[in-house]
Amino acid sequence: MNFDAEKFKASLVERLKRQYGKDIAHANSHDLYDAVAACTREMITSNWMATRAEYEKNPVKQLYYFSAEFLMGRALSNNLINLKIKDAVKEVLNGMNIDYNLVEDQEPDAGLGNGGLGRLASCFLDSLATLDYPGHGYGIRYEYGMFEQHIEDGYQVEYPDNWLRHRDPWEIKRSDLAVTVKFGGNIAYGTTPDGQPRFYLENAEEVIATPYDMPIIGYDTNTVNTLRLWEATSPNGFDLQLFNSMDYNRAVEKQNSAENISRVLYPNDNGPSGKALRLKQQYFFSSASLQDLVHHFVANFGPDFKKFPDYHVIQLNDTHPVVAIPELMRILIDEYGIGWDEAWSIVQKTFAYTNHTILAEALEKWPIEIFQGLLPRIYQIVEEINRRFIEDLRQKYPDDYEKHNRMSIIGGGKVRMAWLAIHAAFSVNGVAALHTELLKTQELKDWSALYPEKFNNKTNGVTQRRWLLNANPALAEFITKRIGHGWEKDLTKLKGLEKFIDDEETLNELITIKQDNKQALADYLKHKQNDFLDPDSIYDVQVKRLHEYKRQFLNVLHIMYLYNRLVEDPNFDPPARTFIFGAKAASGYRRAKAIIKLINTVADRVNNDRRVRGKLRVVFVENYCVTAAEKIYPAADVSEQISTAGYEASGTSNMKFMINGALTLGTMDGANIEIFEEAGKENGFIFGLSSDQIIKMEADHSYKPSEYLARNPQLAKVVEQLVDGTYDPTHQIFKELHDSLVYGVEGQRPDVFYVLADFNSYCKAQEEIAAQYKDKKGWARKTLINIANSGKFSSDRTIEDYVRDIWKLNKLVVK
Ligand SMILES: *Cc1c(COP(=O)(O)O)cnc(C)c1O
User: Fold this and answer.
1) How far is the centre of ligand 1, averaged over its atoms, from the C-alpha of 171 (Å)?
2) pLDDT over 70 for what percent of the chain?
3) Amino acid 441: pLDDT
């Protein structure tokens, strides 16, 4: 991007005048942010239009990533980085006595996602644009994103995330492309003017879907792709008749019912949503996006839909957009008069599906009454898909009725969205090698036997532009100084750092950078939540959604154990440690919330006990989000990736930590396995049961948690301390957590996630960390080896894998 400082300055002044009626001296930080963002967007507008024009002039296959979540975070810094003008803009602002950091801090996170799945979608968009692939996102413009988390008396309290309070300077509303989405009603049957039989809906609720476009700016390229997010509104506003008769509530009811569809993101990560409104959201954006694609296709190519899969491939991010499959059937059959077999063949060539979890509660299944009531015609189409499918199954497995029942898309009173996806899509992928293997051999083994050619692995990745170049500028400079540029678009180039692993000066510089980043995090948390961190201590970090399978509980139990040891044994002198947590719990997930309370309770006790001062601290970072993450990863020494083996599909924070030079403390789970493989096992800390061992124990019911308690008195002690008054005088707050380990509650087995089984092995790994950290150079050396071998975990590599095996896209360079 050619950057003209004078022109930028002039356009900034002009915008402040036009938009706010202010000059620079009177503009506040928010005005300035808005103006800087608007000027930046203006600069890329011609490239954005040129990209669109290039795709139109040169009709090629394009990828559409359908996702209910895009966890974008802030855009300003990232866009300036990708345009390679961040320093220049900083300088312009400096010259005007404006502090860039203050301006940057005005931008709210676009927090339109829960965690890893939504963040993956955002990393993918960055990589697609950077690699010049025609690939775009389709999703929902939630008015309220991920809730804002406050900690009050140690408990999580949720506040609405009103991120659109001020206008969003990045988006462009495209009212001209609005479409109508229909819900409910009854199915009617008639004939078209040319005598063709057609189904249509009568008395349906109509909702207007209006798209808002956000530019996705590639790094060091002219390509600007699009993230298109849909907003729901009512076609007739509110009912004036009712309003005039003073019935205000009912007057706005209809309007509210429509607008509620894009009101708020469901805060359930890897958990059941089960609410009709959620299905409404899913159909709303799937239908709107397909209508958009079909309109565009027909306008360009006419209604010759055989060619549709030559120009479109749709990746379904988990089961959330799977209702797009019967919706495309409906559009082709009901609106364009295409026969079933031809429509099915088009659908089969268009959709690919990504599975993100093996947790049964996260595989969406909609009760028939809800599904059919909300989407009667879509349900009818799913029934027909299933009828034909079961017929095939009967041919293939004539007497295996059990299998027919297990695999039926409609069964047990529910519509099984994952089954629908696997049956219809031409590709089914997991997100790390182990995860894909477990899908093929365990959860989806019926399906991989039926459709072996569909199954493939695509190990997740993260974009190094946001997570290294922008989040950790000192480390980025350190790298460039040694291996030159190039790694920004080809992360495997980091391998070139290996020749420095025994270079004294390099290791010293690396130590200084980490130290500075730790100081910066300490300053940030002091300012943000008045927490004190000692940058000379080990920063041991676990930041991710709060979920039992991720085992933050195991981490806290170890802290309680360490605290006991420090208090009991004055000669015990491990290096100082700061345990840092960040995690949101789904608002209805009681046990996850109790774990947050436990972390904060232990923090309160430990941080206020003089006996362990300077040795042990615990910090809970409030409101963990992308912006907080960008400050946390660069400062971490230890990356906690301690899920029960087999349960974490991939993880991506493990990758972000690795490229920022933290050492992984992890189980052999998800992408941890591949991280240890790349970095070498000796450069990380592996502990715990393997997924094979856990699968076996699950099958033969051989796990006896009580035996672990009996064998390990120190473990028994911390478990008892949950309820003996040590941390909670009422003995009640942590009783459910305690009982879930010891007895099992609500009909569950005790210790479902093998916390007690892995405790000893985890403690040993922690001791190993303490021992190794004392050797600063040795630690820095391992850090550098990790960074040098993190190339595989760029989302650029992931995107190239998808392009080669699934999407078959060609690059289209915009001049
Ligand atoms: C990367 C990221 C995640 C995913 O973390 P995992 O540890 O892989 O679950 C979640 N939230 C945010 C804000 C992230 O940046």
Assistant:
1) 25
2) 98
3) 97
Residue of 320, 465, 547, 550 marked catalytic: 550
Residue 500 CB partners (closer than 8 Å, separation 6+): 482, 506, 784
Q: Determine, yes or no, domain membership for 581.
A: yes
Amino acid at 784: L
Supply the DSSP string of 484-496, one letter for each residue: -S-TTT-GGGGGG
Q: How confident is the model at residue 236 (pLDDT cuts 50, 70, 90)?
A: confident
What's the CATH number where 538 sits? 3.40.50.2000
Does pLDDT of 241 surpass 70?
no
Say what the pLDDT of residue 244 is: 67
Which residue of 652, 667, 798 sits with most ligand 1 atoms within 8 Å of its CB, as the best mutation to test the pocket?
Answer: 652
pLDDT given for residue 271 in this prediction: 82
> Is 736 part of any domain?
yes
Residue 656 annotated among the catalytic residues of the structure: yes
Please report whether residue 766 resides in a domain: yes
- Residue spans of beta strands (DSSP E) within 433-590: 455-457, 538-543, 577-582
Q: Which of 653, 654, 665, 675 to mutate to test the pocket of ligand 1 (most atoms within 8 A of CB)?
A: 653
With a cut of 90, say whether residue 251 has pLDDT above it: no
Does the beta carbon of 656 sit less than 6 angstroms from any atom of ligand 1? yes
| Residue 340: predicted pLDDT | 97
Q: How far is the CA of 293 from the centre of ligand 1 (A)?
A: 31
What is the end-to-end Cα distance of the chain in Å, rounded? 12
When divided into structural domains, the chain yields a total of: 2
How much of the chain is in helix, strand and coil states, percent to nearest 5? 55, 15, 30
For residues 519 and 642, state if they share a domain: yes
Are 401 and 517 members of one domain? no
Cα of 597 vs centre of ligand 1, distance in Å, is: 21
Structural domain containing residue 128: 59-74+109-171+218-227+300-425
What interhelical angle do 504-529 and 473-483 show, nearest 10? 160
- Ligand 1 centre to CA of 499 (Å) is 31
* Window from 215-229, 246-260, 690-704 with minimum mean pLDDT: 246-260
Active site residue 545: yes
Structure tokens at 222: 């002219």
Which of 371, 399, 425 is at the close of a domain? 425
Structure tokens at 546: 């709060």
State how far the Cα of 737 lies from the Cα of 596, in Å rounded to an integer.
11
Which single residue is written with the structure tokens 């009103």? 162
pTM exceeds 0.70, yes or no: yes
